[in-house]
Amino acid sequence: MDTQIDTAQLGEEIVKALKGIYDPEIPVDIYELGLIYDVMVNTDNEVKILMTLTSPNCPVAESLPKEVEDKVVAIENVKSAEVEITFDPPWTRDLMSEEAKLELGML
């Protein structure tokens, strides 16, 4: 019996976990803020997340990627998780979802 985990389904679970992580300075989760650029899941259920921070001097530059990694690796069926930080392209408010902009009174 093949118990292959659907990578798309796993991706959705990862996004759900990411939506539970909040930027300490802005009361919006990091996914809706647009800090997550890409979530890649390979067939071995190894996860790589490409993300950014609101600024290179972000006070959680050390702890936030670790929190993301810990939350993702805790998901059932995730074999490993790696978080890569990039500032290319740099984060701008344009990357925020409509929901985040509404939450922050920007719409």
UniProtKB/TrEMBL annotation:
InterPro entries: Fe-S_Maturation_MIP18, FSCA_dom_sf, MIP18-like, SUF_FeS_clus_asmbl-assoc. Residues 12-84 form the MIP18 family-like domain. It holds the Pfam family FeS_assembly_P. Signal peptide: none annotated. Transmembrane segments: none annotated. PANTHER family: FE-S PROTEIN MATURATION AUXILIARY FACTOR YITW. This is SUF system Fe-S cluster assembly protein. The lineage of its organism: Bacteria, Pseudomonadati, Bacteroidota, Flavobacteriia, Flavobacteriales.
